[in-house]
Predict the structure.
Amino acid sequence: MGKVEGIIKSEIERLAKREVRKISVPLGKDVRLLKITVSQLRKTVSALERFATHQQKELSKAKVPLEVAPEEIKIARFSPRLIRSLRKRLSITQKELAILAGITVGAVHQWESGKFKPSSNKKALIVALRKLRRRDVRKLLDEKKAGRVEKKVPVPRRKVTKKLRKR
């Protein structure tokens, strides 16, 4: 009986190993393919990270300067017609000029109508805007608008309660 038991036992082990191999070999192939895919994805991610840092550096270099020498401000002439023509040349509205200058639309209107003149720091901004092109002004506007959206805090609203009629 000892031989029969040993033969049966060895046969069971052989069949069990065979079944395990049937299952594990395809899984091993899948694991290898997944490792290759993960490796390729890691390379892609690192390349994208390098590209993103490069783009960030380019963006930081491409900041539009709004600095003007004090001599230029003294030399510059300001008239309502010049302010309006600058705005038209840059193809921006009074509201957009107000956003760039950090003032109200009414103030821009009063500049253009000749009722008031810009203050010295606003004059510097206008002289700086004269040096820019439309694309640069659009970029500045987008940055300013993005900054304004982040700063807005939602105002809590009152709850509206319904008055119940007595019957």
